[in-house]
Design a protein that fits this description.
heterodimer; A: about 120 residues; mainly beta; 4-stranded antiparallel sheet; 11 strands; about 55% strand; B: about 110 residues; 7-stranded mixed sheet
Amino acid sequence: EVQLVESGGGLVQPGGSLRLSCAASGFTFSNYWMTWVRQAPGKGLEWVANINQDGSRKQYVDSMKGRFTISRDNAKSSLYLQMNSLRAEDTAEYYCATSEEYAFSYWGQGILVTVSS
Amino acid sequence: QTVVTQEPSFSVSPGGTVTFTCGLSSGSVSTTSYPSWYQQTPGQAPRTLIYNTNKRSSGVPDRFSGSILGNKAALTITGAQADDESHYYCLLFVGSAIWVFGGGTKLTVL
């Protein structure tokens, strides 16, 4: 069974940093593009970033370029999102998901990030 | 900046049929946009319904179908049920490994 489990969320002050992790199991992690999606409270889904199988190709939504960095460790079947210079508007539930056939197929349960003083 | 448009809300009677659409602020949606659709109920992670325009994800009932209607992607629910009451999001591939979600459609079944 495919499982994606996010961790590392919590409360952080504006300007602070946080590193999210996503532990994958039940499939061959190194074969898949992976992605991060977020959802602000009461709002819609927003694609954040994705990374190809060997980590050599990364793409970000424009508003997060330079602040967020996606990475992966295939040996650990783990995906990461390093978030710097956090702002109140980055407060959201963050989901990791597998990406195949130009869609997001399996999703984690999400992890909440709250940016507040 | 690419904006993906969806109807904010829809209502349907139990057993009825409803079609949501997903468009682009500039340009047309085609199969090369690889439209996909996601269902989300409050407090839950999204669930993938349709990918690559019209392919159903594993376990998705065949009352859900995807298509291209004119210059938009479409999700049709035929024979709506009470537990279809959810938010529905479309996702489009806009090139260069960039994806954009629509704002979502809230479906009420009553």
